[in-house]
Amino acid sequence: MESISYTFERLFSATEDSSFAKGTTLELHTDLDSVAVSYASSKVDANQLRLRLKEGLRLGTISFDNIKTAFANQLVDKIIPHWYGTPWSFGGHTAVPNKGKIACGYFISTTLRDMGIKLNRYKLAQKSPIDEAKMISCGSVINKVHQNTPEKAFEEIDNLTTEGLYFIGFDEGHVGYLLKREGELFLIHSNYLSPVSVCMESLKESRVFKRFNKFHIVSISHNDTLLQRWLDDGSVL
């Protein structure tokens, strides 16, 4: 059985006594078969979560705010971590974590699809960042940030966002997830700079972030239309 060793930065839940700012790197030794099985199980769990939340909303036992939080936590803490350490390449489009390579757009489209959002991952991944933002927005607001320094861009993004998960497009050149958790902003993406793989890093310290001055930001976890389509198994693309 083929074995691999890789490193990823772990996202902690809000209940754990950990500092995001310091960052944590874990060395894992695993095998490709177990990764594939674990990931398949996580996709099943996401679908079961969707069905439970839909029924809870119908019965009035949960609110839509509960759904927003549950969706973001499942995607960020259960689906995405399998992908940490998967190598980046411009044409990478693997559908299995750590088997092959994955480009930034395919990382977004594949993880959203595997969370249970009905979309064509090829079509979404091949769109420009602004068109990808439009598709994910489902008609909701797209915040456009244009600043002449990374510091000013970070400040504006920080002011625009609340706790939750977002899509972020970098002008015409890159895409990723933007996560705000416990007041800290993180970029989760297939990074074409070091470590040249899927990772989570502080937005403020990201070398990719510092290379751009135009950004397109769309809420994912606060997007009622997108989440309702997810609940109803409706198509986004």
Name the CATH class. Answer: Alpha Beta
Query: Would you list the SSEs in sequence order as H and E?
Result: EEHHHHHEHEEEEHEH
Instruction: Look up the CATH topology.
Output: endopeptidase fold (from Nostoc punctiforme)
Using only CA atoms, what is the Rg?
17 Å
When the domains are counted, the total is 1
Oligomer state equals single chain
Could you say which overall geometry the principal axes of the C-alpha atoms support?
globular
As residue ranges, the low-confidence spans are 1-29
The rounded distance between the terminal residues' Cα atoms is 37 Å
**What's the main sheet like?**
6 strands, antiparallel
**CATH homologous superfamily caption:** endopeptidase domain like (from Nostoc punctiforme)
Task: Give the strand order, joined by hyphens, for the main sheet.
Answer: 3-8-4-5-6-7
Classification by helices and strands: alpha+beta
Q: How many DSSP helices? A: 8
> Which bin fits the share of residues in helices?
25-40%
Q: In percent, how much strand structure appears in the residues?
A: 15-25%
Count of distinct strands: 8
Average pLDDT rating: 89
In CATH, the architecture is Alpha-Beta Complex
